[in-house]
Amino acid sequence: MRRAPLAALLSLAVALLVPPSGVAADERASWPRPAPSPAAPRAIDLALCLDTSGSMQGLIDAARRKLWEVVNTLGTAKPQPALRVALLTYGSSGSEADGYVVVQTPFTTDLDLVSEKLFALGTNGGTEYVGRVVKHAVEGLTWGGEGAVKILFVAGNESADQDRAAPFRQVVTKAAGLGVRVNAIYCGNPDDPDAGGWREVAAVGGGRWASIDHDRGLVAVASPYDKDLEDLSKRLNGTYLAYGGRAAEGKARQTAQDANAASAPAAGAERAASKASRLYDNSAWDLVDRSRQPGFELAKVPEAELPEEMRKMTVEQRAAHLETKRKEREAIQAQVKDLDAKRRAFVAGEIAKLGLDDSKALDRVLRETIEEQAGAAGFDFSAK
Q1: Which of 4, 44, 57, 282 has an alpha carbon within 20 to 30 A of 19's alpha carbon?
Q2: CB contact at 8 A, 243 and 286
Q3: Residue (of 298, 285, 234) closest to 262 by Cα position
């Protein structure tokens, strides 16, 4: 059998891939060509370093109640980021050897885990080593690679200059050199003698300095839409298909954090809005979220790891069931987004009408700083 010459084979390949010269320009633009691989979303890494010494209960409460509001701000970013959050505490638990620093969770996309850790925190007397907690965060966490936006917040109310083992000037200078923006939140009067050290933390770290009233600065406005949003949040839980070894843990954590959020005014409604965002990612235990990940193949999920109701289904029935849950979730999320827009308009009107001031609130500092620093890195928040 004669083999076609190599030149002839190459000519045939080119003819299949390149439109003929007689094809019109608009037709040539739509000529079949290999689909580009979807670009992975850029990461925004957010490290929260919170003082848990005896006088910091207000700071912890503010972080618990406003976590979802901060997530919702990030949810408006274009392009959509991949959000990872780490939580570190300092000033109470731990020992002198580790500077009383505890990594509550390294970087994770599991926002329910972050909420769980926040609600488990207590306060106690201790020594607040600002340099040590920043050092742990910068050197101990696995930050994102090229293109990642790296934002660190350290908040406390004592002198920032107490740590002789890890002087903050050296530590923060190193952080800035690694592309980590260090932002300092002083929980107290901006005219206090200790406030100057916190200003220097931010100045050296290329970040932002702010003072907050951690006990009285928080502003929360209830709205007529809150109850409906919380109900929709619970309905969303019914669209999750828990699979694998983390199934029971993931479902239980989701339910527990719904209850935690509902215990604070407006927080349950804010959490509902977060659950309607792609940033609320439970792909580690939910098949619907997992199915959006590159390379996912439902047929390759072991039967023993599937939800109980899917194990006796055929491959086709499993795929149909997954699609049904996906569409059900998207329909509920659309309702959440519609109600949340109305809630936000109502809350903005109430704040203006009542003359409320949240300029000393933790969440406002977090939101504005993230918008500013992620915006400088190319993210757009104008759709808020």
Answers
A1: 4
A2: yes
A3: 234
pLDDT digits (tens, 9 = 90+) for 304-326: 999 999 999 999 999 999 999 99
The answer to whether position 255 is within a domain reads yes
CB within 8 Å of 309: residues ≥ 6 apart: 321
Residues 10-27: what's their mean pLDDT? 39
The b-or-e profile of 139-173 (16+ CB within 10 A means b, else e) is eebebbeeebbbbbbbbbbbbbbbbeebbbeebbe
Asked if 77 and 142 sit in the same domain, the reply is: yes
User: Residue 190 domain-assigned?
Assistant: yes
Per the structure, the complete domain to which residue 263 belongs is given by 226-354
Q: Where are the alpha helices (H) located in the chain, listed in sequence order?
A: 6-17, 25-29, 57-75, 111-120, 130-140, 168-177, 195-204, 226-237, 247-262, 267-275, 287-290, 315-354, 362-376
Q: Retrieve residue 321's tokens.
A: 């069931």
CA 12 from chain center: how many Å? 50
Judgement on whether residues 75 and 202 belong to the same structural domain of the protein: yes
Same domain, 246 and 199: no
Segment 44-96, tens digit of pLDDT: 999 999 999 988 999 999 999 999 999 999 999 999 999 999 999 999 877 78
Question: The tokens of 189 are what?
Answer: 């009067």
What's the total number of domains in the chain?
2
